[in-house]
Design a protein that fits this description.
80% helix
Length: 191
């Protein structure tokens, strides 16, 4: 099967996720800075989630660029990833509207963890189907960022029961870690 349909479908789902998130940003009724202050938590949660979706879109694009052929397992693994990412608008809205309450930070972390696991599953299935000499396998190497993210999410989830701010700091740290451009796949494909 051609990978173009998978890419187009995934891009469409991610675009819808971003659209739903931005539609959750409600305009304050009053035209004052005081009224604007009330939506700051919603806006901050939106920024973090936008960054996460952008990171997934970017890495997903690069990962699929290395794919030669798509099979049913890859399709289902991709849908599994998109399922967890489709929960981002819910977790974002709940977290922001409740000013980063402990329970919301726990759910946000679980959603991030599950999306990370789903991405790893998709990556593993692609490598298995493309072979150990595939471009993706060569590109990811030891995958230190990929391997360190789930334990950090678990740390953030655990911290959410004690301090929502420390939990949030872990989630922000992981996002910043991934925000640094990763040229591994571009480098391997260019060779």
């Amino acid at each position: 099967m051609n990978k173009n349909r998978l890419e187009a479908f995934s891009d469409g789902v991610l675009a819808i996720i971003l659209t739903i998130m931005v539609l959750e940003l409600k305009v304050p009724e009053a035209a004052t800075f005081e009224a604007l202050k009330e939506v700051i938590p919603v806006f901050i949660s939106y920024i973090l989630s936008f960054i996460y979706i952008a990171i997934y879109w970017n890495n997903h694009h690069h990962m699929l660029h290395s794919v030669v052929r798509v099979n049913g397992k890859i399709l289902w693994a991709n849908l599994h990833l998109l399922f967890w990412l489709s929960l981002v608008p819910f977790a974002t809205a709940w977290t922001g509207e409740n000013h980063f309450a402990k329970a919301t930070m726990t759910v946000y972390g679980v959603m991030l963890l599950m999306a990370g696991v789903a991405y790893w599953i998709l990556q593993s299935i692609i490598i298995k189907s493309q072979g150990q000499n595939s471009l993706l396998k060569k590109a990811i190497g030891r995958d230190l960022k990929g391997l360190s993210s789930p334990p950090l999410y678990v740390l953030g989830i655990g911290l959410s029961f004690y301090s929502e701010w420390l939990s949030g700091a872990v989630y922000i740290f992981v996002a910043l870690m991934w925000l640094v451009p990763d040229k591994r796949i571009e480098k391997v494909i260019g060779e």
